[in-house]
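Q: I have two molecules that I believe assemble together. Could you output structure tokens for the complex as a whole instead of separate predictions?
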Amino acid sequence: MEPFAILFMCAGFIGLYFLRFRVGFPSSYSLLPFQSGILYRRGIPVRVVSPGRHRVFLGREKIVFLDTRPIEVKVESRAVGLVDGATAFYGFAASARVHDVQKAIHASGSYSELPAFVTLCVAREVLGRCNAEEVKLEQMRLNDEIRNRCSSRLAEAGFELLSFGFTGVSVVSRTEM
Amino acid sequence: MHGDVLGAILSFGCLTATVILMIRLRQKKAVHILDYQAGVRFNGADPSTLRPGVYFTNPGSDPITVVDMRPYQFVLERQVYKDALHSSFVMSLGGEVQVSDPQLAVTGFKNLVRDSLAVVYENVRSAASRSIAHPGVEARGRIAATLEAELNRELEARGIKVRGIEITELWIQKVQGAIPTTAN
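A: Yes, here they are, computed for all two components at once.
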């Protein structure tokens, strides 16, 4: 074989390899029906991708996806001190799911724990501002208040609150403890 | 004759150079640094921070560590502290911890999330011991802001910061036993 032919062949191989770094290697990625993601190109988000097959150029593009199935939160036997010195024991169940993928990805490094964080903080904070009578007699109002506050906080983080409800609330006054 | 030998040597040299170059290039791996991440490249003694993008690097000789810059949420429930007046109080709080300086964070923590949360919990205790607990609901916002500022002063040197501190419960524990009314 001619030396120049070999030279051009080698140059061609090297050129193709450098093209791999620049353009990427064509491949495909499938998102399942309960997944949603963002296509990143060179580290910058390009668009939201829905379930299905997507073409990506390896080395240049990457898909980061989230599970959009409901995230359940179940909390039992928590206690909070009330403003009149009594203690309320409560538990609740809630569920939320990812609604806005872009917000949810950026909201937390561990997105699946965000609903639990928000519901725990809001429930304790709302109950902690009440006295024993309010907790005993106004559970529906407190439930609605907590649900509304959780809903707005989760919406800012790209989540949709599906449900929230107390599983049990009881009050122990200071003299009984 | 000489031309044939030279041609053969040139061909052999080209093929060898191509093979070596392609082996070196194959060792390079793509590292994606996304918009919510930062990369720290350790080039000898001086680390450098990399912006979002794709970097091809040899993991053995030119490693890049990807740091997640997103916040991690934490909850501390019903912890007992002593304030500046040595009163015991119970406090629950929630907040977020986030990397502020990726170079400091990577060199300071082996497991960024677990170890940084442990440092935050320890600093909450020491920051709380320098404050004065007030059981009033209205004072929680002010105490949370003070706590956040104190925590960030302590954590700045470690490359992390806290934000969104909210106090969800705060009450002062009753003093056990009688307080003497006369002094010796």
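A: One point stands out. Chain A has a mean pLDDT of 91.
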